[in-house]
Design brief:
about 290 residues; OB fold (Dihydrolipoamide Acetyltransferase, E2P); Rossmann fold; Ribonucleotide Reductase Protein R1, domain 1
Length: about 290
């Protein structure tokens, strides 16, 4: 037994215990030290005292880089936006909302165009053509044909990833494929932590053999505009940035102003018109929110 503090990552909170993984990938079943008052979240980086027989005492929570609420998880690095090549056809509006939210929360985003074994929808073709040209990360994948899985694992390497996207895009199937031999490995852990495969609604992080962790919930939802000022929105559109400084007005919203270089880039087909429409829709929501709270 030792009283030395060890750094760890909270994988799960279950039944009043916190399951903490150390740098050696060992998992400890921890109870809280009484002095801790704030809620401990999945993804929290903590200091704990390891005890005998895989037990431990969670001592302190280290400062969080970020915190999301749906699901409630801390220190996310990576947002995997799962869309389908077809069935269902991808929504460009939903994609842009997720990208803005990821940018606002300091997350690296990857667009995963899944089900590429299916014929390509018109919007899927637009995504594959436009977004990589503007610097967005894109991976094409197929669970059925095991395509793109290694590229996704490389993106997750040593990072905490969560999934987002509409139902029917293959999020659960992709998760099961990313977590190698999930039934065997999670069964072993479950004997220790008392967890059946679908017995809890608490979010859990699965360590990947290739490195990194992925949340077990495919229900990550960040569809509403983030709590930002309307003038900040354009900062989260990277394809706008080279034109923003060229606008006549330094506080240009790229909305109804004259001599707006962003709008000119749209008319010149440099910025896609659909991207600008999605921007305006979110901008109007933010402006309306500001009016309501004045």
């Amino acid at each position: 037994m030792t009283n030395t503090y060890v750094e760890g990552l909270v994988l799960k909170n279950y039944g009043g215990f916190y399951y903490v993984q150390d740098s050696k990938k060992d998992i400890y079943e921890c109870k809280l030290r009484g002095k801790i008052r704030q809620a401990v979240l999945t993804g929290d980086k903590v200091l704990f005292t390891p005890l005998e027989h895989g037990q431990g005492i969670l001592e302190t929570i280290q400062k969080r880089r970020n915190e999301m609420t749906r699901p409630r998880i801390a220190n996310i690095d990576l947002l995997l936006i799962i869309l389908a090549n077809d069935e269902p056809a991808p929504s460009l509006s939903l994609l842009d909302r997720l990208l803005v939210n990821a940018s606002y929360n300091g997350l690296t985003s990857y667009i995963i165009l899944n089900k590429i074994d299916l014929p390509e929808d018109e919007n899927a073709a637009i995504i594959a053509r436009y977004y990589p040209q503007k610097g967005f990360n894109l991976i094409k994948s197929s669970v059925r044909n095991n395509i793109g899985i290694n590229s996704i694992k490389e993106a997750i390497m040593d990072r905490i990833a969560v999934l987002a996207g509409p139902s029917g895009t293959g999020k659960s199937s992709l998760l099961n494929l990313l977590v190698e031999e999930a039934d065997i490995k999670t069964q072993d852990v479950s004997k220790k932590i008392g967890r059946g495969r679908h017995t809890t609604r608490h979010v859990e992080l699965y360590p990947l053999d290739s490195g990194g962790w992925i949340a077990d919930t495919p229900g990550f939802s960040i569809l509403n505009p983030p709590n930002m000022e309307s003038r900040q929105l354009a900062n989260h559109y990277p394809d706008f940035q080279e034109f923003v400084s060229l606008c006549r007005f330094s506080d240009c919203l790229h909305y109804r102003e004259k001599d707006c270089s962003v709008k000119k880039a749209v008319s010149d087909n440099i910025i896609a018109e659909f991207r600008y429409r999605n921007y305006v829709a979110m901008l109007e929501e933010l402006i309306e929110n500001e009016r309501c709270y004045r």
